[in-house]
Fold:
Amino acid sequence: MVMTAAERIPGVEVRHDAPSGPALREVVFDVEDLTVAYGGKSALSGVSLEVYKNFVTAFIGPSGCGKSTFIRCFNRMNDLIPSATVDGTILYHGEDLYGREVDPVEVRRLIGMVFQKPNPFPKSIFDNVAFGPRVLGLKDGLDDRVRHALEQAALWDEVKSRLKESALSLSGGQQQRLCIARALAVEPEVILMDEPASALDPISTTRIEDLMDELKREYTIVIVTHNMQQAARVADMTAFFSVEVDENRDARTGILVEYDVTSKIFTNPSDQRTEDYVTGRFG
Amino acid sequence: MSAAATTLVAAKPRGRVLGAVFMGYLLLSLAIGFALLLWLLVDIAATGLPYIDRALFLNDPSADPAIAGARPAILGTLYIGALLLVFTVPLGVGTAIYLEEYADKERWYNRLLELNIQNLAAVPSIVYGILGLAFLVRGLGLGRVLLAGAMILTLLVLPVVIIASREAIRAVSASIRQGAFALGATKWQVVWRQVLPAAAPGMATGSILALSRAIGETAPLLLVGALTYVAFNPSLLDQFTVLPIQIFQWTSRPQEEFKVLAAAAIIVLLAILLSLNAVAIWVRNRYQKRW
Structure:
């Protein structure tokens, strides 16, 4: 049922703006048979897929399908939940992300994250962006680093005259771009975005989407979204997750139904469940 | 169109009488508390204000009310207050951080610890006094000294400071912690650079309010051996007295002049407490206003 993208990719038409097909791209994450449980209850089961460099990879699916749980495995945020257990492997450039010697703090430096609700720190705009570099001891050229991150996040022009003001004085959309800038300031390789635009208005959402298109030249982006149109607009690859209900044990667990280039998922999916979902017959 | 759908006039006065009665009750309870407090304050002020003079602040207590002052007691109260701040804040905040950020709440010993702290906050102060007498004054052999008094008051307010600090830490949004962790911050950096600054106003307010409660305490200090007559400036390892005890001693004297002196001393104590509370409010506003 679950196939890796590479097995499916040959012969599939890719997005016009993708310079090369996924099969030729460098694999950033290689997920193999991943299962996540909270307090023994499995939230996500048997997921295998590959995430490619400089692609936007979207995870879509109904509520409770484990897509947010899944994205939090990539930067080991699930480690912060004592009851969470992760089985299976995630290779990051061939190295086991959950290996014994791996420091989750180092993982999170290389793999940044933007959350569903904008969560600026109750500090100034400057201090928000500077926080990451400061905790990592990157004190040289801090001003330039902050400026560069804000420029990348398309926020510089709006805030350059008030860097000392509270980040909480920004609008919701600006706050989310600030959180993106904050993640960029530590120069990660990957940016994980957990429904980054779900709390924003349509104009702010468009700006975030444009930003993703811009950022994928330099970064690899993984995004969880509730919004199928958003996945169709921004993602190169899309994974559709669903919920499998076990009536006997009253258990619900998320599974990966289909993973493919975005155009295939939305126009010619191989699985009936994907088709039902993307055409709006389910979820 | 039916009449029921268009009329805006209520058919029945649904509980409006009850609402008015309830409002009346609320105002009454407010009035009783407020009136009593006001009466006390006015009475004390009328009696004591004329006697607040240099002698009260500068002189030692004396059998002659005309020259008696409360200098050792005022200084004792200030010393105890300063020591309390030094003892309770690091201990209380430290414990609160451990319990909120580090303790695994599934473990039985952490739950036991929590339960204990909650209960300790409700233990009568006289019990702390007995503890202080048994373990500090006699057990440790400290004697009836200021340090012992400060230590026992520390134990008395520590649970309150811990609980207030935990509330303040808990009020820091989890999204801030996650945001910091996601940037590659270590646990120490998250706690030190995000959680503590955000919780500081709440912790400061809670600590200062607990401190002002301790400064008004009499019972445990009587047991630890604060004296009613001290005619020298306090020091750490010396006998001592504090304002509430001085007030207690003056009011129990038969002469009217001492009762008036007591009223003046009460005003001084109130002024110290109110300034502490004012500092608490100032700290809270200052840090909240910044963001």
